[in-house]
Structures are given as C-alpha cells and as structure tokens.
Design goal:
This protein is of the alpha+beta class. The chain is 14% helix and 34% strand. It has 3 domains: 106 residues, no CATH class; 160 residues, no CATH class; 156 residues, Flagellar hook protein FlgE (Tick-borne Encephalitis virus Glycoprotein, domain 1), CATH 2.60.98. The strands form 9 sheets. Strands 5, 6, 9, 10, 22, 23, 24, 26 and 27 form a 9-stranded antiparallel sheet that branches. β5 and β6 form a beta hairpin. α1 runs antiparallel to α2.
Length: 434
C-alpha cells in the first residue's frame, strides 16, 4: 500500500535530517579545533519501485556524510616554536604512545609541545614521529613508518657530540718575510720551526666529549705562497707522527683572496684524528675559505690575526628550547647557545585524502578508499611544506553551519508532517468499516 511507503519515506527523512544535524553539531563544536576538517552532508534517494506503473511507491532519502579532509585550512600565526602547520597536501605522522608498536594515525593538528619526558605531543596526546638525524644531518627514508621515532629532545641532555667542522677566518700578513731555512712537512708540528709566521689553536672534541687542541700554523715561502700544517697539541693526543694531521701549500691571488685551486687539497677537505685515548672521532671538515673569495684565509698588509673561528661538538648541556624549521628539521638549542639538528619530520600523503577513516583525537587512518600512505620529506613528491610558528584553523564555517541548521530543521519538521498526515489518512481508511 502506497500509504505505508509514504510513512516509511517520512521516517527515512527524519533519520537523514537527524544525521545531517549531527554533522552540523560536530562542525560547530569543532569550529576552534586546530586542523579540524568540516563534514558536509549530502543526500541520496531511495527508490522503492522504479518501474513505471499506475501506483507510486515512495522510497525515501538517506544521508551521506562526507569529510572534506583535502580542504586546506587557514594557517594562523602562533608564538609557540613547536606549533606546526602544513601548507599543501599531507599529514603529520603520530602514534598513540611512545611505544614503537602503538597505533599510527595521520593528523593536521600541529599544536605540539614537549611533555614532562621531552616527547613532542599534540593536544590529543599523539606523539609526533620523525627520522633521527646522524651527526652529518642525514637520514634514510625507507618508506616505512617503522623507521620513524618519537620526537624526543631531552635524551640529548648530558650527551656528547664529536666535532665535525672547523670554520676559520684569518689573515696572513702579506709583508711577512719569507722563511729562508730548509723546510720539511712536520717541522712546525715538531718544533723545528719554532716561530711560525701565523699560529692559532682551537679546541675540538671526540665522540666522548673530550677536548683536544688542534693548531693551524703557517710560514711564508714566497710571494703569495705559504706552507701550512694542522697538528695536535700535544702530539701525544693522536697516533700520527708528531701529531701532524694535514700539511701542504696555501696560495693567494694578487688581490689577496684565496687561490684554493692551486692550494693543497689536504688543507681544505677533512681530517679524521685517531685519538690515543681510544675515543671515537668524526671526520672534521676544514672550512678555510672559498676559491677567489675572502670568506676564509686571506693575505693583506694588516697584521696576521685570527678574525673568527667556529667549532662544533662538545658536551651537550640542558635543552633550553626546541624549534622546527620550514623544512621540517627539528633542532634543540642548549643552554650554552649551541644548536643541533636532531630530527627530520616526514609528511604522509594518500591518493584520496577524503577517503581516510576518521578516528578520535582529530586523526585519520588509511582505508581501502583512501589508498596506502607514502612517507616523504616536506615539499617533495606532492607532500606539502611544513610551516613553523603556525597552526591550521578549522575549515568549519560558522555562518554556513547555522544556515544548514535552519535548512535541516525545516526539512525535519516537514518529514514529521508526512508521518502525521499519513497517520490521519490511515485513520480515515480504518474508519471505512464503520
């Protein structure tokens, strides 16, 4: 009987409009939730009997909620260095705990901050994941989430970092008299040349945080030509004879800039000391200037002097602050002012973001509709860029949601009228037997 189909159609309308109103309620209550993606409700017809006939059978309507996860929310400025947003496609990768076997979820909620154990967690309690960087700032992307670690910076407190770079700017006085004696490599290190024209020392560190002194000394051998040595002080700190780590020629151009092309490569590459205390060592890059420029060693008429020097490594103290660059590199700044890059954040992308399954905590998990996620560095292979000091706002539009609320309320009332009207008609039909 068509009246009963109309009754069922009215019930389906009540159910569909109630579901749509629930989506509106969720959107309104999450209008200030960081990274929230609004849910849009679409409707689909239900057909009771699609054949052409003299009698019509009502089918009804069903609600089809659709999360618009691919929509980009507005990135708003934040004063917290660990508040992060993604500009473009992709998600942060998080776990429900610091355990490597805990559940994985994708999220755009980037309001991260260190907890009491030093882990970066967002307001939903999800632990941010990343690749740990080695001493050279490199990492290996295996494409597997199992290669990621929870971002924790407090475990660096009190640890050691070996020196990996010596950067120096110094001037060799051009009017220095040329050395007239016989010179053999190692003479400055063993003291045969007692007074080099230039000599400066810096402290470097082994993998255990032990300090060692390394000197750069040079003598002038002719116009624009110098002999230089890099050696340990005392020589007994290393296994090399006389403590000599590198030696060779340093040439300058007529304008006083470095002629690196004609200088000895050994003085501009890397040295790896073998410490006699059995502590490990990293290759130490010698950053002494660029060919044809005055950003390192120079030769001018002013007095030979050290302009500036920079050496990394040493015992790492307490972590004073944590920062994240726009490239997704997490760095820790220690109380002595040193900064060390420790993690690289990945960005996960999926073929169909709108097909992800929503989970509590403003997170998502992959589904058969979304496709499997790929893990890549920010800004590569379709992944968006990470923005520090920024949070992604909710995509829920309050004005639009109130408008939808009025629409769905009116439709709900109309569906209820169908039920009451059909009830009256059935009552009339039942009264015919009287």
């Amino acid at each position: 009987m068509s009246l009963y189909s109309a009754l069922f159609s009215g019930v389906s309308g009540l159910s569909a409009e109630a579901s749509a109103m629930a989506a509106v309620a969720d959107n309104i209550t999450n209008v200030n939730t960081v990274g929230y993606k609004a849910v849009e409700t679409q409707f689909s017809t239900l057909v009771g009997d699609g054949r052409a006939s003299n009698s019509y059978t009502a089918g009804g309507v069903t609600a089809q909620p659709k999360a618009l996860i691919s929509n980009q929310g507005l990135l708003q400025a934040s004063s917290n260095s660990t508040d992060l947003g993604i500009e473009g496609q992709g998600f942060f990768i998080t776990r429900s705990s610091s355990d490597a076997k805990s559940g994985v979820s994708l999220t755009r909620s980037g309001s991260f901050s260190p907890d009491k154990d030093g882990f970066l967690k967002n307001t939903s309690g999800q632990y941010l994941q990343g690749w740990r960087l080695d001493t050279k700032g490199a990492y290996v992307n295996t494409g597997s989430v199992n290669a990621l670690e929870p971002i924790r910076v407090s475990d660096l407190t009190g640890t050691a970092a070996a020196t990996s770079k010596i950067q120096m700017r110094a001037n060799f006085q051009s009017t220095t008299a040329a050395y007239t004696g016989a010179y053999t490599a190692g003479d400055m290190a063993n003291g045969t040349v007692a007074s080099p024209s230039f000599s400066r020392s810096v402290d470097v560190y082994d993998q255990q945080g032990g300090a060692h002194r390394v000197a750069l000394s040079a003598i002038k051998t002719g116009p624009n030509s110098w002999k230089a040595e890099i050696y340990a002080q005392p020589a007994t700190d290393v296994t090399a004879a006389n403590g000599l780590l590198a030696s060779g020629d340093i040439k300058f151009n007529a304008d006083g800039s470095l002629d690196r092309a004609n200088s000895s490569p050994a003085l501009f590459s890397s040295v790896t000391p073998t410490w006699t205390n059995a502590a490990g060592a990293d290759p130490i890059a010698l950053s002494l200037g660029t060919d044809g420029k005055v950003d390192g060693l120079t030769q001018f008429g002013t007095e030979s002097s050290l302009v500036s020097s920079s050496v990394d490594g040493g015992i790492l103290g307490n972590v004073a602050s944590v920062s994240v660059s726009n490239q997704g590199v997490v760095s820790a700044t220690f109380d002595d002012g040193r900064t060390r890059a420790i993690f690289q954040l990945p960005v996960a992308t999926v073929p169909n973001p709108n097909g992800l399954t929503r989970i509590s905590g403003n997170g998502y998990s992959a589904s058969s509709v979304s496709g499997a996620y790929a893990i890549n560095a920010p800004g590569s292979l379709g992944a968006g860029n990470i923005k520090g000091f920024a949070l992604e706002a909710s995509t829920a539009d309050l004005a639009q949601e109130f408008t939808n609320m009025i629409r769905f309320q009116r439709a709900y009332s109309a569906s209820s009228k169908i039920i009451t009207t059909v009830d009256d008609m059935l009552q009339e039909a039942s009264n015919l037997k009287r």
